[in-house]
Amino acid sequence: METHEEKLARVLRDRVEIVPYDPAWPSLFEEERQHLLASLPAGLIVSIEHFGSTSVPSLPSKPVIDMLVEVRDLEEARAHIAPVLEAQGYDYFWRPTHGDDTPPWYAWFIRRDAAGTRTHHIHMIGPGPLFAGHRDRLLFRDYLVIRPDLAAEYAALKQSIASAMTDRVAYTRAKGSFIERVTAEAKRYFEQEQGDDQQQQTTESV
Questions:
Q1: What does the pLDDT read at residue 40?
Q2: How confident is the model at residue 104 (pLDDT cuts 50, 70, 90)?
Q3: Distance (Å, rounded) from C-alpha 182 to C-alpha 164?
Q4: Counted domains in the chain
Q5: 107, 78 Cβ separation under 8 angstroms
Q6: How many C-beta atoms surround the C-beta of residue 90 within 10 A?
Q7: 189: exposed, middle or buried (C-beta count within 10 Å: 0-12, 13-18, 19+)?
């Protein structure tokens, strides 16, 4: 039986490939969303979101659909969801959120097609503020959608990095500073937008 270390080494060997945006990606997300809702225990899933580069129109990406699944209770998900998906052939990892061996942990699944090629990454998190970093990825997504200039800058960065390295961990780390900068900008933008909406509602009610 494959050990955790052997499985991790296997998935990290997968090559980093950036391809042009595929209009089929939203449909592939929706198909997987429906599959998860149909095959997993009822009542555990709170929400399922499409995030990452495949969720941003026109943005080149690794051809892997990133999905953020929030569950009611992460320990229940480990006990009742992980075995179901592993039985269907998904790779499963219990991972630290911040890249070291400390909480908060989350469940990560890789789905592959019949040829063994990655098709989906499922990031499964629990409720509460501990997982704010995962939810920030949705702000990053939404901001790139409304800022095509930043999406273009991100595309150029990703293609440059991917051409220089094949290691998945190094590729992810190399994007880190851009993602942090744009996420901080996105938070300021959406907080200001929310404040403006609340002010307008107050004015209209007077």
A1: 93
A2: confident
A3: 23
A4: 1
A5: yes
A6: 16
A7: middle
pLDDT at 164 over 80: no
34-41, long-range: CB within 8 Å, 24+ apart, which pairs?
36/69, 36/122, 39/84, 39/88, 40/80, 40/81, 40/84, 40/85, 41/80, 41/81, 41/84
Angle at 97 between CA 187 and CA 154, to 5 degrees: 50
Q: Which residues contact 89 (CB under 8 A, 6 or more apart)?
A: 111, 112
- 5's tokens: 């270390």
Residue 40 burial (CB < 10 Å; 0-12/13-18/19+)? middle
Strand partners, 106: 95
DSSP one-letter string for 36-75: HHHHSPTT-EEEEEEESGGGSTT--B-S-EEEEEEES-HH
- Are 83 and 39 in contact, with CB atoms under 8 Å apart? no
The chain-wide mean pLDDT, for the chain, equals 88
Instruction: Name the residue with higher pLDDT: 99 or 129.
Output: 129
Residue 193: per-residue pLDDT = 83
Q: What CATH number does residue 47 fall under?
A: 3.30.460.10
Model pTM?
Answer: 0.86
Mean pLDDT of 185-189: 97
The boundaries of the domain holding residue 167 are: 4-205
* AA identity, residue 105: W
pLDDT of amino acid 172? 82
Rounded CA-CA distance 194/200 in Å is 10
Give the contacts of 62 (CB within 8 A, at least 6 positions apart): 16, 17, 18, 19, 53, 54
